[in-house]
Amino acid sequence: MSERFAVYKHKFVTDDSQFIIRQFIVLKKEDGTIQFTNFHKYVKNPKRRVKKVSENGNNRFYFVVKLLNYAYFYAGINTLDELTVEIVESFLNEYGLCELPDDDDFTTRSESTVKMCVNTILDFLETYINDKHEKPSIKEEDLFRKVNKRDKKGKVTQVKVPRFDVVYKGSDHKIYRDMPNKAFNMLLENIILNHKEILGLVILQAFAGLRPSEACNVRRADSPLGSGFLFEITNGEFRNVKIDLLKEQNLRSDYVIVGNIKKERIQAVPQIFLESFQKLYNIYIEYMNDKPFEAAYGPFSVNKQGKAYTYASYRVHFQNIIRDEMIPLYLDSNDPELVTYGQILTEKRLSPHIFRHWYTVQIILSGETNVGTIMSYRGDTSPESSLTYLNNKSELAKMYEHVNAENFDYLKWAAIKKQS
Questions:
Q1: What is the CATH number for 286?
Q2: What domain range is 44 assigned to?
Q3: Which residues on neighbouring strands pair with residue 28, listed in sequence order?
Q4: In the chain, how many domains are there?
Q5: pLDDT tens, 270-318?
Q6: Whole-prediction pTM value?
């Protein structure tokens, strides 16, 4: 168990037999002990000065705990004074899109829940900022603005409006992370040519089905913490590749948690992806030959400072590539399908989860129908996700080209052939 913030409920009975619950925010240590924090005193609506004695804060504490876990253990802050607007924006959008590191494919949040989270976080930060004698780096005017709003009774009140857009997914369970194979091929080509620093993460997702945070946990084959890869090689070709996800380990000298492993396991690369995996794995390893990395930990994917990529930094890097490079490329294409896709991306955000979705689609379209096998390929703990893909197979077949053995290689490796 790694450290996490959590809600602690203290229950007691008053002299008049009223049952009271008070909530606190604690830090759960790796050894199971808890440390109380003072964050609870900022979890309130700054405008409410009178409240019922039995009021306990309800869900507001849970919203704040999610922010704290995201900011401390994924964005890597050490104190709340280091919190930035960018981290808050990223958290609220990942919350709305159900893409937080501990979310799964069936996490859903309604518009009202997302709005409640936004309001709670803005209230929490306003109270914290105003309470501090030494001002934190984040400022009210950079975080939100206050506007007048008339309620149902006609009373005018001030409400906080964030300075950035917050998007949400809604409660629709249909598969939404779609990417045409042509668009996938262009994206992969761009990463191979211009962004090899995240190529290791991409191949772990697109060809082994790892979640983004799980990909950040993978170690090099020569890591002193234990090999992250188990290879079976015959005549120089990969016959089997397995990835060690049995335990979350510290992969950075600054002790920043890179991400969580949803299901601890040994993950095998499916046979249909082995050739593709080997080609890109070799390209990435060659790229890393003269790059710094923290040898004491042996992380597979590292940033420019040589430290293991965190899920948060990977997501931001990926989204910058989509926004600044891929959307213009898609829109400038002569292919109407790619132009349409580029137009869609101007209104919708992609996350690195797109690679895991693409991976699953290819497995389904290759003819796999056994739910247990698909669950194993995906590292799922329950069958719901696999069943959703299977139930949508006909819809997926319409959206995706069926990739046979002959053109499968071309779609993914046209980019590599252009380099040779």
A1: 1.10.443
A2: 4-162
A3: 4, 34
A4: 2
A5: 999 999 999 999 999 999 999 999 999 999 999 999 999 998 899 889 9
A6: 0.67
